[in-house]
């Protein structure tokens, strides 16, 4: 840190490199959290992304430092991050440490009173992607709720948000509340996971307005408009930073008859369908790691390859969804899935209706503006880091 301060007067380009060198996640600041954990019984919510800079897993680091971990809680995709999206994650035991693992995905998304019994602090360390329908923020919220109900503290080790510094999308309407959208926030909400938990607590969004005893180990030298390398894929089908960047724009296809590349080497970097034959790019989804039975399995899909694009999106791009809708030709099935999953993802039925009505991307995004302005007034109360 002293090294950073000495060279603050250097030219901007060098200062940016210096910023990256001096940056630390919450997990890489053990001098701040180890004293809080010593002599306590710890439950930890983490997965394959809970890494220190040298790729040591946080669980292994804590065990080495004689921190008593009584149980591990695993979110969607499991403790090792190898389960498909939506796949039931089983309870088990971590082979390396012998610590019991309890799933927080499936029937039991919220820790039970029995699972919380005997824990002093729940430590939360997961690399999020900063998008409402990515379920790790829902897991954090349920953990906070269970902790508040059982007199347990929550300590979050903060990590970068790859979609920080901007907000976009419709605000979730209450009747569309699900595990892919618990709170009245836009799809891209512009907060780190530590900041998000503070907002959940501060706005009393937990059940019955209860509040958790909640604190954050902040990152060092983090800037909300700077992008940081992801040490490990946050889930099987977000394998790199390009997929993460496109995720808020392409995830809408999960509510349609269009593939987002699950079952290929380019998930969330391509899209296509057997019924969009006017589009130039072709691919065939097949079972693979993270997609045991992908949509459009074995079928030739026609679409678009976005994997080589140099664009760093800082907004939701609706042109992909609208383009696919206009080119979709299938008399047997409508473009949107019959279960209307698109409405759960969007947090409203308006996006689907606007696309059917032929609204342009500009017109649709203009309809979000009022809600975004209102949300920004809430968000700004919880911002911990500079731009």
From TrEMBL:
Origin superkingdom: Bacteria
Keywords annotated in UniProt: Signal
GO molecular function: peptidoglycan beta-N-acetylmuramidase activity
Alphabetical list of Gene3D superfamilies matching this protein: 3.90.1150.140, Uncharacterised protein PF07075, DUF1343 (3.40.50.12170)
Signal peptide: 1-15
Residue span, Peptidoglycan beta-N-acetylmuramidase NamZ N-terminal domain: 42-241
Pfam family name, one: NamZ_N
Residue intervals passing through the bilayer: none
Annotated Peptidoglycan beta-N-acetylmuramidase NamZ C-terminal domain residues: 246-385
Name of the protein in question: Uncharacterized protein YbbC (DUF1343 family)
Organism: Frigoriflavimonas asaccharolytica
């Amino acid at each position: 840190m002293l090294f950073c301060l000495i060279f603050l007067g250097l030219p901007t380009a060098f200062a940016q490199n210096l910023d990256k060198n001096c940056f630390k996640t919450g997990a890489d600041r053990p001098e701040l959290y180890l004293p809080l954990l010593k002599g306590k019984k710890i439950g930890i919510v983490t997965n394959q992304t809970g890494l220190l800079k040298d790729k040591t897993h946080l669980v292994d680091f804590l065990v080495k430092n004689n921190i008593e971990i009584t149980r591990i809680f695993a979110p969607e995709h499991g403790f090792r991050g190898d389960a498909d999206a939506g796949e039931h994650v089983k309870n088990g035991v971590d082979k390396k440490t012998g610590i019991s693992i309890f799933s927080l995905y499936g029937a039991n998304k919220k820790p039970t009173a029995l699972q919380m019994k005997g824990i002093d602090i729940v430590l939360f360390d997961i690399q999020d992607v900063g998008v409402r329908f990515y379920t790790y923020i829902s897991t954090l919220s349920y953990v906070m709720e269970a902790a508040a109900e059982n007199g347990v503290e929550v300590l979050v080790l903060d990590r970068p948000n790859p979609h920080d510094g901007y907000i976009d999308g419709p605000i979730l309407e209450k009747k569309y509340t699900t595990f892919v959208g618990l709170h009245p926030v836009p799809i891209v909400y512009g907060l780190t996971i530590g900041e998000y938990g503070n907002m959940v607590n501060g706005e009393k969004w937990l059940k019955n307005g209860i509040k958790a005893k909640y604190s954050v180990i902040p990152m060092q030298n983090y800037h909300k408009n700077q992008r940081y390398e992801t040490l490990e894929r946050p889930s099987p089908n977000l394998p790199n930073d390009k997929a993460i960047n496109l995720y808020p724009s392409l995830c809408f296809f999960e509510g349609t008859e269009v593939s987002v590349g699950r079952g290929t080497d380019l998930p969330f970097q391509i899209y296509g369908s057997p019924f969009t034959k006017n589009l130039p790019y072709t691919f065939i989804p097949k079972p693979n790691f993270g997609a045991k039975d992908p949509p459009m399995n074995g079928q030739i899909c026609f679409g678009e390859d976005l994997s080589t694009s140099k664009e760093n999106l800082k907004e939701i791009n609706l042109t992909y969804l609208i383009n696919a809708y206009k080119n979709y030709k299938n008399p047997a099935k409508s473009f949107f899935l019959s279960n209307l999953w698109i409405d759960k993802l969007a947090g409203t039925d308006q996006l689907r209706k606007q696309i059917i009505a032929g609204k342009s991307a500009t017109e649709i995004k203009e309809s979000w503006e009022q809600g975004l302005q209102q949300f920004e007034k809430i968000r700004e109360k919880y911002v911990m880091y500079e731009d």
